[in-house]
Amino acid sequence: MQNPYIPYPVVVDKIITEVDTKDIKTFRFKFVNPEDEAKYAYIPGQFGELSIYGKGESPIGIASSPTQKGYIEFTVQKAGVVTTALHEMEEGTLMGIRGPLGNSWPLEYLEGKNIVIVGGGFAFTTLRSMINYALHEDNRKRFGNITVVYGARNPGLLLYKEELEAWSKRSDINLNVTVDKGDATWKGREGFVPAVCKDVAPSKDNAVALICGPPVMIRFTLPVFFELGFSKENIITSLEMRMKCGIGKCGRCNVGSKYVCKDGPVFSLAQLDELTPEY
Amino acid sequence: MEKRLIKKDALAGIAKKMAGDVLVWAPVKQEDNVLFKPLRADDEPFFAYLNSKNAPKNVFFPHTETLMKYTRTEKGMVFSEEVNDAPQSVLFGVRPCDAHSFVLLDKLFDQEKYKDGYYIAKRRNTTVITLACVKPPYTSCFCTSVDGEPVSSDGADILLTDIGGDYLVEFVTEKGEKLAKYFGDTQADAAADAKKNEIAAKAKEAIASKIPAHEVKPILDKNFDNPFWDTIHRKCLACGTCTYLCPTCHCFDISDEVTEVEGVRIRSWDSCMFPLFTKETSGHNPRTSQKERWRQRAMHKFKYYIDMFNAIACVGCGRCVMYCPVNIDIRKIVTDISKL
Questions:
Q1: In chain B, alpha helices (H)
Q2: In chain A, which residues touch B (CB < 8 A)?
Q3: Exposed site from B78, B101, B145, B300, fewest CB < 10 Å?
């Protein structure tokens, strides 16, 4: 059995600078041993521990979709010791990833339902994994309408610009990209995510909302969805906590009787109501 | 299973003889403390001890442990899994409370989905010999309140009970029976058994310190925000002594230690009492003060572990009570919670 503490060796295959401020990059990794890719079978919403020897590990949501074969992607903001070292890496460098860790977006539950995806800023990464998964020709029929509201502070901070462009041309996804404040070239929507959600007003019928973003966005978006009639069971989010082991042992991400790393990171609002408010 | 008798003064010799064949951890006097140490040829095991200062959890979950090694190449780091070195071992003469702690730690480290191979390998290859407490060693002992007993085979492969001139040797598991050859050939009779039961009942009676540990779970379920939590932490220094000495505390950190060309990834004990334990890169800390950290400690032991594993994560050894530098007493905390 794979030792869960030992990372799979990967090589940095491609680095994409996502934003104008250059502090968010997407790292595409290839497994050094091709057979490891199958062992690392993941589901959208799961995360991995990016492992840089001598620096440590950082838990990051998986940004690619399992339908994208041959590589795995993580979008990482430069913040602490590990992510700073990662941002200084060059293509071709060897490092490691552990996982896949945690639960995932509840794919079985989402099957046959309309999906409303709301993302703010940098918290869009595992939602992007979900969108690419659901839009894949093998999966599209399994889900109903897909509505996306994605916002960033300004156009330069939007992630995955090429994909947003490609999605906008499809008829099987209702994509609403917004920025708090546009610039001279911005032709799209302006406005905060909660306001756009109110405007788009997705129906609660047979629908589940997946919402990720900064706390302030969550705080103002939830009332909109309550107003639209979404139940707490059908509003689902992903938590972040400080983590080390990722497998429910080291104790760091213990919230109430759950470990965010193994029982989460994905929880419905109904589940969060049961959890002690300490995250 | 089989039961035998050995002369009381034979015990040290048995431990030493065993140490000639396998790795034996036994209580050894070290300066003013008694600690479990790998017994070397010139060491004298000290079985007339009360309890070891440190809980013997380090036998399975060392204070610091290498998870993997790596070397630097031009292309980056290449790693190798640290070979899980778990020799056949005997943990000789632990107290019943500490043996009980292994059963509790197994629930966490040996779960169905995520198995901790480092812990499990050592646990599997180690035979636990428990030395019963025929007299409770300390006034702060409260094992009987947390599912333990001073004479108990819980967590033991072999149980030794002092019944006067002899030790009654009870082989509790097959793993324990494999060491039968070291324990002479005197079969225990019914009288020895009766004597042991009598001693066990007396010892249990003698545990005077009692806490309502089983009553507090439903109270904790409802009192996360009770003002009570504002009171208990005030004198806490956040030194972490309670968690380091605790037989069931198991939180750890993972860190890298490197030189120019090679390095190791290690795990080492950590503590929920430390502010940095939960501090995130953004600066956000879900447990902002010692209040939240103390609540976590109490909740984890007397509520969360029950929710997760249906067991209280405390064995009543009393180490945290004895060694807290500011006399915070978990027994008083639990008693106070029961009155909320």
A1: 11-19, 96-109, 117-124, 174-177, 190-206, 217-222, 229-232, 241-245, 290-299, 305-309, 319-323, 330-338
A2: 1, 3-7, 9, 11, 52-57, 79-80, 83, 92-96, 240-242, 244-245, 247-252, 254-257, 262, 276-279
A3: B78
